[in-house]
Design goal:
Radius of gyration: 27 Å
Structural class: alpha+beta
Number of strands: 42
Strand order of the largest sheet: 1-2-9-10-11-12-19-16-15-14
Helix content: 25-40%
Strand content: 25-35%
Bound molecules: beta-D-glucopyranose, 1-deoxynojirimycin
Length: 798
Amino acid sequence: MKQYGYFDDDVREFVITDPATPWPWINYLGCEDFFSLVSNTAGGYCFCKDAKFRRILRYRYNGVPMDSGGRYYYIKDGDSVWNPGWKPCKTPLDRYECRHGMGYTRIIGEKDGLRCEVLFFVPKGGRCEVHRVRLTNTGAAVKRVQLWSFVEWCLWNASTDMENFQRNLSTGEVEVGDRILYHKTEYRERRDHYAFFGANRPFDGFDTDRESFLGPYNGFDTPQQVFAGTSGNSVAHGWSPVASHRFDLTLEAGKSEELIFVLGYVENPPEAKFSAPGIINKAPAEELLEAFGTPAKADAAFAALKGYWDGLLCRFQLESAVPELDRTVNIWNQYQCMVTFFMSRSASYFESGIGRGMGFRDSNQDLAGIVHLIPDRARQRILDIAATQFPDGGCYHQYQPLTKRGNHDIGGGFGDDPLWLIFGTVAYIKETGDFSILEEKVPFDNQPGTEKTLLEHLKISFARVADNLGPHGLPLIGRADWNDCLNLNCFSDNPDESFQTTENKTEGSRAESLMIAGLFVAEGKDFAELLSQPAVSADPAYVDEVREAVSRMETAVKQHGWDGEWFLRAYDYYGRKIGSSENAESKIFIESQGWCGMARIGADEGLCGKALDAASKYLECEYGLVLNAPAFSSYIKDYGEISSYPQGYKENGGIFCHNNPWVIIAEAMAGRADDAWRHYCKISPAFAKDQSLRKVEPYVFCQMVAGAEAAHPGEGKNSWLTGTAAWTWKTVSEFILGIKPQYDGLLVEPCIPQHIGSYRVRRRFREAEYDLTIRLTGKGGSFRIPYRPGFQALEIEL
Ligand code: BGC
Ligand code: NOJ
């Protein structure tokens, strides 16, 4: 089985040893408002705040060859031209290594006695990428070599950059300094920002016009200037502005040369935009280059970044007998949760950065992965999300990170959305104990003057679902519930319309969702518990109302949502069952087994246990639990997008990893440790054996792995940005390892196979630090730790 890399846990890195990975294996840089995607061959792009509106580097999704465009360093050593990251020239290297770490990537290429090491990172407090390039002559003779940098600018709006060529090819503008190349397209008019690419010493040549650098018919792999050993000293006017520096270097035997490049973004206030007519104010760019432009300063910035991640990750550390589990918990799952929180579903190698911004339900779920790491940012996020809610409790399905305004193109109408606000808020308060967030005033649809407290927002969220029930007393699904592709009010024959926004037959709609029913019961119970906290002082009559609505829903599910062996998935527009043994296909779906199972609906009557057995029996395959089985074999107009996918992919029979944790948690709640563990290991990348088959990064969870009915079962897709990150975190930390934040402390209640023996968790919780050694003796049960600031070491036998 071919391996392309391995985990180096001591330094929290994944090390790629063969650049020709089956798909680009990427990393993310940045943790404030400047972000970069960087692949193992230095491909990718960066943006400030918003991947659509403030795109800095151009990137061609779905390009040929794949992953073309990035920050490329070219080396010319005699007749040989190569890149430390192998691409784009693909000149064979004597040695290649890419180390993806926490917020940085280090790429090392070596050829003919010359080593080039490039460290890429986005420093804390700097809107820039720092590239630390070190060239070492490992041979015995002096070497004269040349180094070129290269990036291609995006004309800011990543969407129009790919469309509006009649304009774009005329707007490009640059300025050239002796160390810094500036990209200032549209700065002359309404923009207050520009980008720059600088080096910490004067260059020997430069290019800012793409065709002058590459040659009109050449690709990134054969830049004419590099092969000629020259620069064109070109100044771009329109066409495609780029930035390339050239350095002619002499390296004594055994000696190194280090250059520091800063690729940055600057915003200037209107009165300070220009230093002279038409000349941009360059002072902030020079300062940024200055701030990181010596080895000592770059070292310090890099150390600060490492310190930041050390400080975060030490908040939850596990020592167990299972290395795959330790590396998932201690490093990569927490890291993926952070990245997912930053990006929501906007920018990955599967999300173009121009489509979806921040999802209402997605961002609420993402909170569960990071509340223990960055609670202040979680707090702000909750308030931002709540401000995209409508007065009737519905909400925008998505919003744009730059403006924080709801996205009109897609609008609202997804039946489950409002309940996720309760989910996110509960996760935040249980972790932090910060009830004051409930008193924050938040507007509706961002309209000043409409403010109500967050607690009121939660009440109307709850009411929105409680008051919109169908004929069976189950929640109306709307455009879709969590499963965006189960479109029961869309009947589309027209390939040019969206499944998500088309509702062409709503009158008399009766489509109801069992997934929302389970979510409503689970979140309703959480909501009642929150309202009952002394710090909330809610009206007891209202709390009773919530409890009664929950209990009515439980009754409705038991009466109309049980199929005999498992929970139904939905009732369609005509009131017909979906996810029933009566159906020809898709007799069973995962979402309702997970949610009704987590809500413990009918647990006493044995319904949850049966539903979980059915999930294992009908949905489980080698790589996890598929979403529905058997998958739809043809398009069904009454069901929408779900049946548009070939069998085994995405929402039609794919292993949609996001929802596997729901079943795993339900298993844990039912005390079935072996089932929970087996399902968990199947979707966890650290346990996957075949890197070629999995295809995408072995260090992060996928949204989807092709299911048993697919042509290529086990093939992963949509890595990185997925609710799977937060849900697997919640699953492993709270339900498998059993460290559950409560309003008044921690509850230790593991559900983990006994053979794991014992484990140690060091957990920061508010102002407390716990060092817990948990020994599994087989007696089971739970252990309550009342919150008290300070350090406590405990040995717990369960
Ligand atoms: C995908 C879903 C996704 C939706 C977003 C669909 O095509 O299959 O996973 O949530 O698009 O709009
Ligand atoms: C991905 C979307 O981001 C998420 O909101 C949705 O719940 C799932 N796909 C399932 O359709």
